[in-house]
Amino acid sequence: MMLSTPVIETKSLSKEYGIGEIKVYALKEVSIKVERGEFVAIMGSSGSGKSTLLNLLGCLDRPTSGSYVLDGQDVARLGDKELARIRNRKIGVIFQTFNLLPRLSAQRNVELPLSYSRDEKRNHDLRARELLEMVGLGKRLRHMPTEMSGGEQQRVAIARALVNDPSIILADEPTGNLDSATGKEVMALLRQVIEEGRTLVMVTHDKAIGGQSDRIIWLRDGALSAGEF
User: Fold this and answer.
1) Contact 222, 25 (CB under 8 A)
2) Hey, how many other C-beta atoms are within 10 angstroms of the C-beta on 130?
3) SS3 30
4) pLDDT 10s digit of each residue in the chain, 229 long?
5) Are strands 8-19 and 22-34 parallel, antiparallel or unpaired?
6) Residues near 187 by Cβ (< 8 Å), separated by ≥ 6?
7) What letter would DSSP give residue 114?
8) What distance lies between CA 112 and its chain's CA centroid?
9) Cβ atoms within 10 Å of 141's Cβ, excluding its own
10) Rounded Cα gap, residues 227 and 166, in angstroms
11) Domain 37-61+89-225 in CATH: superfamily?
12) Angle separating helix axes 121-134 and 150-162, nearest 10 degrees
């Protein structure tokens, strides 16, 4: 059951680039709310600002102006260390290109976000193993990314995003580099994440995936759009 207080709320969120009088808006005065436990898709054409918005929501970048309240806390003006702490505690991010470290095994990649944790190392091992079992890779713990298929790498990335038990998952085209069958398997895993009570915000160009969401946020030229175009 959704709570009345949004877990994500932005007001006039903007991101601009440029020097002097030459300004380019990657995002312009975007105001959105995402409720706890909701699955929201962000859609729009290439260059519409989808990834920029996701980076801001994931505390991977700062807005030029506007406010961003994450789980009751205004994070738009926090410093790097504070943002990293919040990101590590509350947010899991899944990238289209997986972003696994090539010289680390599947298990070690999943353990990476736990490096800030005070838990004993053996607890890190156990948590990573449990998650890799959950995503169907219990027998691939020691395999390197180059020894795994795209779908397997994305499963590792999902396990890594979940390792700190975040309440919010942000996904940037998580099926974009996968064939349709593997993409369906990844979406089944993400639906399981939602069923566990987490919030999922996903950038996608796939209308079929967008149709599975509770709601679609459309962007055009960095601004909110009324719908598909």
Assistant:
1) yes
2) 14
3) strand
4) 444 689 999 999 999 988 777 888 899 999 999 999 999 999 999 989 999 999 999 999 999 999 999 999 999 888 888 888 888 889 999 998 999 999 999 999 999 998 876 666 678 899 999 999 999 999 999 999 999 999 999 999 999 999 999 999 999 999 998 999 999 999 999 999 999 999 999 999 999 999 999 999 999 999 999 866 5
5) antiparallel
6) 175, 209, 212
7) G
8) 16
9) 17
10) 30
11) P-loop containing nucleotide triphosphate hydrolases (3.40.50.300)
12) 130
Looking at residue 37, its amino acid is G
Give Cβ neighbours of residue 54 (< 8 Å, ≥ 6 apart). 42, 170, 172, 201, 203
Tokens describing residue 110: 């999943």
Residue 193 and residue 31: Cα distance in Å, rounded?
Answer: 26
The span from the CA of 20 to the CA of 27, in Å, is 18
Convert 75-105 to b/e letters by CB count within 10 Å (16 or more is b). Answer: bbebeeeebeebbbebbbbbbbebebeeeeb
Residue type, 4: S
Going 56 to 83 to 96 to 192, the CA torsion angle's sign is negative
Q: Are 94 and 157 in contact (CB under 8 A)?
A: yes
Q: How many residues does the chain have?
A: 229
Sorted by where each begins, the domain ranges of the chain are 37-61+89-225
Q: Where are the alpha helices (DSSP H) in 148-179?
A: 150-162
